[in-house]
Design goal:
The chain is an alpha/beta fold. Helix content is 28%, strand content 27%. A hairpin with a 2-residue loop joins strand 10 and strand 11. The chain is globular, with a radius of gyration of 21 Å.
């Protein structure tokens, strides 16, 4: 069913009883050309682009829970392409361009809102670093504006300019950045893939792999064995655990990242704001809630919940940036499992096991990368050649020294 003003009007006349499910809740078949493990944003996007761009429709997406139960439904909805290094900028700019046409492509309202992303700086050194970042972005054709203190005050007069321990001196603005409704992204890609013949199999947990003569030929699941010519992993924070079933040890640590939503407020924040003197970021949803978060919790975990010291740290960052947030009541919080790579950048590559492909290591950047991740991963699976925009995300870069260390923190995943 195509969504339009006409289908809306027609269903309004029948009491909205004619709407069909957005996608087929399929049962697994014995074999597929491609099996994608992970029914989050990246797995669904990969399936969609495999079908749409490469004509590969004999595909199954296996999700151990329900669609939207993982990290794609547990993030702060921010999209941006304000990166510094040449390994990252082309990829995230491709993602931004795909975001800009996503709703028309999927015929689905993903609530893409390009309201701008502003990164504040609080020192001369930070200003120089952001100026360099902005110049690198513009050299790659990405929009960037370096704002001084007065320009930031005009845009966001309610921030703490006068009494802060780390006064705001300006910020780097990407006007095309913004937010997207995270659940709608999963639903839209699921609908688009299903309409093109992809089987989306929920409540189907992978329990192992069948490897014959060094090649992955099947996945063992709670719903039986499923054979495949190619098997692709897109399981975010569970990447190390799932890859270990195939005998692989990945350069990844799993950490919890907490996020928070306040009660609904009248329109307050015009865009996304990040605090440069601490790790705090905030935006406002279309329903009025303030959506914010900070650092990952400082220990390895597979639990989708965090600890109170990190909650306190996030609240301190919010109070330092905009003290009035202290009067707002918290509505809910949650945790997502981050697959933190050794250099803070992702992996899209073939693995040493033939027929097994890996999409992992997204750290904080997973949601904003969803369209480009699916696009590049689908290209890799279809052609066994990396897409140019994701060519730097090789698995062996940690052995060869070709790291993409955006933050300059070295090989310590918890610091990225």
């Amino acid at each position: 069913m195509k969504y339009s003003i006409f289908s809306l009007a027609a269903n309004a006349l029948t009491g909205h009883k004619g709407w069909k499910p957005a996608w087929r809740d399929a049962s697994p078949r014995e074999a597929y050309d491609v099996v994608i493990v992970g029914g989050g944003g990246h797995g669904l996007a990969t399936a969609y682009y495999l079908a749409k761009e490469h004509g590969i429709t004999n595909v199954a997406v296996l999700e151990k829970g329900w669609i939207g139960s993982g990290n794609v439904g547990r993030n702060t909805t921010i999209i941006r392409s304000n990166y510094l290094l040449p390994g990252n900028i082309p990829f995230y700019e491709l993602s931004m361009k795909l975001w800009e046409g996503l709703e028309q492509d999927l015929n689905y309202n993903a609530m893409v809102s390009q309201r701008g992303v502003l990164n504040l700086f609080h020192s001369d050194a930070q200003r120089d670093a952001f100026a360099r970042r902005g110049n690198a972005m513009r050299l790659h054709g990405v929009d960037a504006e370096l704002l001084d203190r007065d320009a930031v005050r005009k845009m966001l007069p309610f921030l703490n300019f006068d009494d802060a321990r780390f006064p705001i001196q300006g910020g780097l603005l990407q006007p095309r950045g913004g937010t997207v409704r995270h659940d709608a992204v999963a639903w839209g890609y699921a609908r688009g893939a299903s309409d093109r013949g992809v089987d989306i199999v929920q409540n189907c947990e992978v329990t192992g792999f069948r490897i014959e003569n060094g090649r992955a030929v099947a996945v063992e699941t709670t719903r039986g064995t499923i054979r495949a010519r190619k098997i692709a992993l897109a399981v975010a924070g569970n990447s190390s655990r799932v890859a270990a079933m195939a005998g692989l040890r990945l350069p990844i640590e799993s950490h919890v990242l907490q996020a928070f939503v306040s009660e609904g407020l009248k329109p307050l924040l015009p865009g996304v704001v990040t605090f440069g003197a601490g790790h705090f970021y905030i935006s406002q949803s279309d329903k009025g809630g303030l959506v914010f978060g900070g650092d990952i919790d400082g220990y390895n975990s597979y639990a989708q919940r965090g600890n109170l010291p990190t909650v306190e740290d996030v609240c301190e960052g919010g109070m330092a940036l905009m003290p009035m947030i202290g009067r707002v009541r918290l509505l809910r919080s949650w945790g997502g499992i981050m697959d933190m790579s050794m250099d803070g950048s992702p992996i899209i590559d073939r693995t040493p096991v033939d027929g097994l492909y890996l999409n992992a290591g997204w750290c904080y950047g997973g949601f904003k990368a969803t369209p480009a991740s699916g696009w590049c991963f689908a290209h890799l699976i279809a052609h066994d050649v990396p897409h140019p925009a994701g060519a730097a995300f090789r698995l062996d870069r940690f052995a060869t020294g070709h790291l993409i260390d955006e933050k300059g923190q070295g090989a310590q995943p918890n610091l990225h």
